[in-house]
Every structure is written in structure tokens, then in C-alpha cells.
Design goal:
Shape: globular
Number of helices: 16
Structural class: alpha/beta
Distance between the termini: 35 Å
Number of strands: 13
Order of helices and strands: EHHEHEHEHEHHHEHEHEHEHEHEHHEEH
Radius of gyration: 21 Å
CATH class of the largest domain: Alpha Beta
Strand order of the largest sheet: 2-1-3-4-5-12-13
Bound molecules: 1,4-dihydronicotinamide adenine dinucleotide
Helix content: 25-40%
CATH architecture of the largest domain: 3-Layer(aba) Sandwich
Length: 352
């Protein structure tokens, strides 16, 4: 079997940090193990020309959301041997799922592998925004001591209303971690969680518009699908409370790029944070890099060292199952048997 992995570059850190499994050089720790079994493993960072060269002879393709190879219909058409695309991580929107279904290619991701890592990043970024952390940090770095300037925009999180869009694995972990802050929790999802879970999380359901109008902080935790692309457009961003904060660790394209820049320049939102952009890597002149009051990072929340170990193990397990003719864990499947099967994605695809 020929396995091709398109992963982010580790450069000079790869050798020094063998636990940096997610980079192309260390190739999820799977290269030696699979080569010993007689398989060919190619790891690359070039997601265009070099990947295209290998596509016609690739059986299994590994991609990662942190350095996404955008697997378009055109690329799928070139990959006549391809039967499995694995996402090293969670979130397979960089793959044309309709085209994969039509070509009977299975798409699977390592469900749950980095959900704690992301939830922790969300809590960190909510606190960074609400407490006005980055201006305070930059003040120190610039030799300043401007207490008034920083304190004028610094709040307690306690008693604030926090809304979660997409109460799945990450959303529920964000809620669990925020509970001890004594916030009021709300969520919007296309289905309700059980009343028992609502009671356990002390969280209430609101429509998306109610959530926008009532919450001081919103965290986006739903997948990018045809139903969520551009969901946070100018209208929805304007419907958010003046002075609210928005954190998006889901996918950049869920928020309309230009609409966000406009609303941030108008000062309607007090802050925006997250780690996801479109496209990725974000070009040096991406307008979110320079818009006011943001606290963004590159796409790193789901690739802590612990997360890398979990998704690397998951990728290896999927490949071994495929080689042994055993089915891939049902929870991992996004596309299988010619259709989108993941409950978090199929809703949007069935409705088209
Ligand atoms: P999940 O599948 O457990 O939960 C997603 C939730 O979103 C589900 O409850 C689903 O019903 C809901 N949802 C789907 N479409 C919706 C819509 N149109 N409106 C409202 N809710 C909707 O997925 P999980 O593990 O919580 O991950 C969520 C997303 O977070 C991933 O799809 C991925 O895009 C992103 N992610 C980002 C990472 C990062 O490093 N920044 C790492 C892992 C995931």
C-alpha cells in the first residue's frame, strides 16, 4: 500500500523533538512501522505540485487541518487508486466530501483526539479577551505601566452570559470548564442535548439570534459545512450585543472575513479570538492579522503534544484496520459507502 501524508513542516525542530509527531519529518511516528511491513510511506509539506505528482498512485492519503491540503474535486479526480483519506486531527472540511462520496472514498478523522486541547484554548482565549490580557502584556513589553488604559477595558468573567454554538464534544468540554467561573451558559445546536445533560452542564438552549442578542461571549464549536459557511455574516455579527466577544476555534470560513473586519473596525465587538483562518496558512496580509482588538493565534489549539500523540495513534490504528480488512471505528467516519455519514456533517449534506 502507498500512504502519502501531507503534514506541516517541523524544520530544525523535528529531530530535536521526536514527540513533535504531527510534522512531516516525524510523520506521526508511523513511517518505520509501516515500511517494515513492506508499505511505501511518503511524507511531504508541499500540498500542491508534489502532492499532485503522487496522487495517481496513492492508496491512503493523510492530511491535517493545521496545514491543510485542500482536497478538491479536481485532486480527487486525479487520485484513481485512492480509497481512504484520514484527517490527522478533527475537522474534514478541507476535503470535498461530496466528491469523495461520489468516488466511493472513505473519509475518516480521529474523533475526540484533540477536543480537550481545543476546549482549554477556548477558555484561555475567552479570559485573554475579557481580562484585556494582550494589551497588558504589550504594555509590559513596551516598558509601560498604563494601569488606567488597561483596566478601562478589563472585566470579570463571573456572571457573564456565555453562548456556545455547537454543543458537541468540544462545546460540552468548554461548558464543563467554564462552569466553575459562575457564568450563565447557553447553547445553540441543530439538535438539543438531553435534559439530563442540560441540567448537568447548567446550560439552556437559545435560538442563534437569541444567543447573539443576549450573550457577552460566544464560542463557535460547530463544524464547517455548507450550512455553517459564512454563518457569522455582517447581519449576525451586528445582532451580537455591543461590546461582546467572539471566539472561533472551529473554522475560519464560518465567519465572513470582510464582515468581521468591518464590525471590528466599527468597534461593535470588544474582541475576537480563535486560531482558525481561511485560507491556511493565512497569508501575511490576511486582514484578520491587523484588525483591531483581536487575540488570535495560528491554528495550534488542537495540536498540543498530547493531542499529536492521540491523533497519531488513531491514524495508525485506522491504517492497520484497513490493512487487516477490519472496519474503521464508526465514530471516526465522515464519508463511507458513498455518502456523508457523520451526524455532525450529514445534516448539512442531506438538506442540499
Ligand atoms: P462534534 O461533532 O462532537 O460536535 C459538533 C457539534 O456541532 C454537534 O453537536 C453538531 O450537532 C453541531 N452542529 C453541526 N452543524 C451545526 C449547525 N449548522 N448549527 C449548529 N450546530 C451545528 O465535533 P467536535 O469534536 O466538537 O469539533 C467541532 C469542530 O471543531 C470540528 O468540526 C472542527 O472544525 C473544529 N476543531 C478545531 C480544532 C482546532 O485545532 N482549532 C481541533 C478540533 C476540532
Amino acid at each position: 500500500m502507498k500512504i502519502v501524508a501531507a503534514l506541516y513542516p517541523g524544520n530544525d525542530l523535528a529531530e530535536k523533538y521526536p514527540e513533535l509527531l504531527g510534522c512531516a519529518e516525524n510523520c506521526l511516528g508511523i513511517r518505520e512501522r509501516l515500511e517494515k511491513q513492506g508499505h511505501t510511506v511518503v511524507a511531504l509539506t508541499d500540498r500542491e505540485c508534489e502532492l499532485d505528482k503522487h496522487l495517481p498512485t496513492t492508496d491512503t492519503l493523510i492530511t491535517t487541518p493545521f496545514w491543510p491540503a485542500y482536497i478538491t474535486r479536481e485532486k480527487i479526480q486525479k487520485a484513481s487508486n485512492l480509497s481512504l483519506i484520514l484527517t490527522a486531527g478533527v475537522g474534514s472540511d478541507h476535503i470535498d466530501l461530496a466528491a469523495a462520496s461520489e468516488h466511493n472514498i472513505t473519509v475518516a478523522e480521529i474523533t475526540g483526539s484533540n477536543v480537550v486541547s481545543v476546549a482549554e484554548h477556548v477558555v484561555m482565549q475567552i479570559l485573554a479577551l475579557v481580562r484585556n490580557y494582550f494589551p497588558a502584556y504589550h504594555d509590559v513589553m513596551n516598558g509601560g505601566w498604563n494601569i488606567g488604559k488597561i483596566a478601562a477595558k478589563s472585566h470579570d468573567l463571573e456572571s457573564k452570559s456565555v453562548g456556545i454554538v455547537g454543543l458537541g464534544r468540544i462545546g460540552q468540554r468548554v461548558a464543563t470548564r467554564l462552569k466553575p467561573f459562575d457564568v450563565k451558559l447557553y447553547y445553540y445546536d441543530f439538535h438539543h442535548v438531553s435534559t439530563v445533560d442540560e441540567a448537568f452542564l447548567n446550560i439552556r438552549y437559545l435560538s442563534l439570534l437569541q444567543l447573539a442578542a443576549n450573550c457577552d461571549v460566544i464560542s463557535i464549536n460547530c463544524p464547517l459545512t455548507p450550512a455553517t459557511k459564512g454563518l457569522f455574516n455582517y447581519d449576525l455579527l451586528s445582532a451580537m450585543k455591543k461590546g461582546a466577544y467572539l471566539v472561533n476555534t472551529a473554522r475560519g470560513a464560518i465567519v465572513d472575513t470582510e464582515a468581521l473586519v468591518k464590525i471590528m473596525k466599527e468597534g461593535h465587538l470588544a474582541g475576537y479570538a480563535g486560531d482558525v483562518w481561511y485560507p491556511q496558512p493565512a497569508p501575511a496580509d490576511h486582514p484578520w492579522r491587523s484588525m483591531p482588538n483581536h487575540a488570535m493565534t495560528p491554528h495550534v489549539s488542537g495540536t498540543s503534544l498530547e493531542a499529536q500523540k492521540r491523533y497519531a495513534d488513531g491514524v495508525y490504528e485506522c491504517i492497520i484496520r484497513k490493512l487487516e480488512g477490519r472496519p474503521i471505528d464508526k465514530d471516526y467516519l465522515i464519508v463511507d459507502g458513498g455518502k456523508v455519514v457523520s451526524p455532525s456533517y450529514s445534516y448539512a449534506y442531506e438538506k442540499r
